[in-house]
Amino acid sequence: MSTGMSSTPCHDECTYLIELAHRLEQSMTETDKQLNKWYEDANTLLRSANLESLAGERELEKLSLQLRTEWLRYANHISSKYLRSPPHFQMVYLPSGNQNPLPYDRWNKPVSLEQRAANFRSAPSGWKADHILFNSGMGAVSCLLQVMRKLFEPRPGNPMRFNGVGGYFEIMDLMQFSHDELFQFRIFQQQQQFQRSVASGASQLLYIEPVYTLLGRLEVFDMDAFLAAWHQRPENTPTAIVVDTTFVGNRFPMKEFLRQLTPHEPRVVVQISSTLKLDQEGLEFSNAGLMSIFSTTEPIVSGLGKRLRKYRASMGLGLTLEQTAALDYTGFLDASLSTQHADGIFRNNALLAQEMEVGDNRLFAERFHPVLQESLHSTPWAVSPFVNLQLRSETSQIERELLKHVLFREASQRGLTFKPGSSFGFRAHRVETSIQDERGGVQVIRVAMGCREGPSLGGAIKLLNDISRMGTFDAVRAKYPELLETVLKIAQPEEKEAD
Questions:
Q1: Which residues neighbour 164 within 8 Å (Cβ) at sequence distance 6 or greater?
Q2: What is the pairing mode between strands 387-390 and 442-448?
Q3: Residue range 340-498 in CATH 2.40.128.270
Q4: CA atoms within 13 A on the CB side of 10
Q5: CB–CB of 325/28 below 8 Å?
Q6: What is the dihedral of CA 166, 169, 175, 176, to 10 degrees?
Q7: Euclidean distance between CA atoms 380 and 255, whole angstroms
Q8: CA atoms of 109 and 100, how far apart (whole Å)
Q9: Are 467 and 20 in contact (CB under 8 A)?
Q10: Phi and psi dihedrals of 466, rounded to 5?
Q11: pLDDT digit string (tens) for 16-68?
Q12: What per-residue confidence (pLDDT) applies to 4?
């Protein structure tokens, strides 16, 4: 099977990090000598005979995190010069030298970053766009819901309805928090149900995640079926479409999607994503959420943008100056670099999905990833930054915790850059053992392979398969009695506190 993998992955990674360091340095208006030692270490490693080994990859991981530290130290050095409420007439500058409007920290306006977003997500012909940055993806969604309440003017007996497909757990929590007589939401388990809802005009807000988890599976949005339903929708139904592309990055063809909504376009289409995940080259410089507003009517774009920015400032949902400074480097909201990074992640997770051993005689009963569905191979957004591995329904919380300790122990002993943790989108690899789909009681762990193609990629896949071959948690308990004892000791105080 051809994987497109490099024969010198650690060399390629080291070269990439050196190029990234140069880009960060270009965003520094003041001389910074701290990077000199980093360059020296990076070039020494680049010439090392051990570069392509696990030891070399571990040094690469240290270098990547040290580079992150050096940039954040410099960015904070710049942003810390200014008070949260600077005096009038003081010019506030970012690391790159760009001026930053900052009358008050909660009212911070990341103008230069939002200007970049215009190129990152340009609108197709006939459409207007505006781009707004928030302190997180969830901050963006929260702000949007509040502003939409004003836009659609719900009343008792005629609430604003929000129907969609998706299920990201924090989105679901936010929907529950917001649910009242004026706002009602429904997330469908079957896309056909959603399509019927779209065609009938049952809701004003339509929500789409191009790839989402449902009962452990990774479902892929059927754009053709949605568009067929859309063109049956009553034309006099005021509509806003919200698309969360956090999981798929630039793979979702937003321009093409907008074009195919004609002839009766919605009032507005909003694209939202957490830029922390796939748009910061795996180094998590700062949390941030990007919202892009599209409409064929300019007053809607400008009016909605104005309302969103006002609410953002009032509720403290915008980027702080520190966050803005951390993201003020050449590479953030660069479509080419974001795509390159995300493609590596998508490729590595597809490889994991294809090589995982699951079944009745394995610890992991099933695996879920879009690459496993042949009918989706021509769909650009049929990708995922992680793989879901299903556990038996009878798996206990103690056993899940034991699995986390086993993975940590084995990865450490084997020298892998593979750790238990949350989220996805890194340069190295992660596994999260606490995931559980509450809607159906399906138990899965989420393995998020990073973009790096070094020896830990194959090593992590081998480790997961070694554990899967153990077959049962009885076998795991027997092999790791000291780890089980540790887990039980940790669990006892928690049980007493719960009582």
A1: 185, 186, 187, 188, 194, 205, 206, 207, 208, 209, 242
A2: antiparallel
A3: no
A4: 26
A5: no
A6: 130
A7: 13
A8: 7
A9: no
A10: -60, -45
A11: 999 999 999 999 988 778 899 999 999 999 999 999 999 999 999 999 999 99
A12: 62
Nearest CA-CA partner of 161 in 217, 239, 269: 239
CA distance 278 to 273: 9
CA–CA dist 243, 204 (Å, integer) = 14
User: What average pLDDT is seen over the chain?
Assistant: 94
How far apart (Å, rounded) are the C-alpha atoms in residues 128 and 281?
29
Question: 317: burial class by Cβ within 10 Å (0-12, 13-18, 19+)?
Answer: buried
- Helix crossing, 298-315 with 137-152: angle to 10°? 120
The dihedral formed by the CA atoms of 122, 125, 126 and 128, expressed in degrees to the nearest 10: 10
Q: Read off the DSSP letter of residue 104.
A: S
Are 419 and 472 in contact, with CB atoms under 8 Å apart? no
pTM for the whole thing?
0.95
Phi–psi pair at 157, nearest 5 degrees = 90, -15
Give the three-class secondary structure for 319.
coil
DSSP one-letter code for 246:
T
Sheet (strand 160-165) strand order: 128-134, 289-295, 268-274, 240-244, 205-208, 160-165, 183-187
**Where are the domains positioned within the chain?**
9-81, 105-332, 340-498
- Distance between CA atoms of residues 173 and 108, nearest Å: 28
263 preceded by cis ω (within 30°)?
yes
CATH topology of domain 105-332: Aspartate Aminotransferase; domain 2 (3.40.640)
What is the 3 state secondary structure string of 372-387? Answer: HCHHHCCCCCCCCCCE
Query: Which phi and psi angles does 333 have, rounded to 5°?
Result: 60, 40
Residue 101 token pair: 């409007």
How sure is the predictor about 376, in pLDDT bands with cuts at 50, 70 and 90?
Answer: very high
SS3 349: helix
| pLDDT tens sequence across 195-239 | 999 999 999 999 999 999 988 999 999 999 999 999 999 988 989
Q: Are strands 429-432 and 418-420 parallel, antiparallel or unpaired?
A: parallel
CA atoms of 178 and 436, how far apart (whole Å): 23
Q: Quote helix, strand, coil % in the chain, to nearest 5.
A: 45, 15, 35
